[in-house]
Model the fold of this input.
Amino acid sequence: MSKINRLSEVFDQKGVRNNDIVKLLRVRKETVSRWVHNKQQPDLHKLYLIAEYLRVDIRELLHPSDWSKSKVEPFS
Done:
């Protein structure tokens, strides 16, 4: 099964525990555990809140990248 989010990796990088997110979003710890293990996904609003809390681009929660430094070329 491929990963569809990077919550576990980003939490580790930022030193954040699942319980921190439980308190932030007022959700059950089982819910956050399912998100971290890619068994269920948070909705877009919750992803936004997590990204804000972690001070990362929301896209970093989904796919590793260097968004802030990349220059996107327009389609021809």
Residues 7-56 form a domain with the 434 Repressor (Amino-terminal Domain) fold (CATH 1.10.260.40). The first helix runs from residue 7 to 14. The two ends are 36 Å apart (CA to CA).
